[in-house]
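Study this:
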Amino acid sequence: MSEPVKQAKGADDDMSRASGWDALLDDLFGLNVRALGSMWAVLATPRKVFAAARDADWLGKYTPSIRLVFTLIAAMVFLRFLWGGEDSALHQMTKAGLTDSDVLGYGDMDQFTQDYLGLWLVMFPFSYFFVHGLLALVVRIWGKGTRAPLRLRLYFAALLPGLLLGVLSTLAIPLLDAALFEQTLMPALALTGVIYALTVFRGLPAAVSKMGRASRGLLFACVALCGDLFIALSTFVIGYAWLYERGPV
């Protein structure tokens, strides 16, 4: 005789469970509870995240740091309608920097600026991962014997709070005019450096002396900021040169 068929459990909606809501968030926003928890952990207890990075599966608790970086960059691209429109302070400041009638003539500079910002968005993720990926392999502040894959994990984890500040700051761009926005650039850069340094200082093991953690945090901040500035400069030069061949329409 064949075994009786087991009846399925009663109407228990998968979406009533935490895992179900996690899946729904992933469906809607490309995010999930684990990713949000990982981002919060990097801000609140970076030492735990840095320790988890040494486990192959991040202790089953945290989303890989490189994936979180990609998610934040994707969020910044998605928010372009807030910070990159023709009425935005960034558009006006970029337009002023690009406008050179002797070189470009007198075409539609608003369209030229929008094309530049669009090209910048295409190039930025590639240049960000390429430049910071190389720097991650060079910077050795994580302890003796830390192999290259782990250095990448730790480096990108340390970038996350500063990158999050950059993404959140785009939400304020619609509230600023071009002059005020330009005045905020240097303070924002300095604040990003402080956040980088503090993240490494708080994330390194307690066995490392405070002086050692402070010096390594400062070194990381200097390297990461130099990487950010190089990315901004290189994408500007490449994007401008690319569009210069065409000129404004």
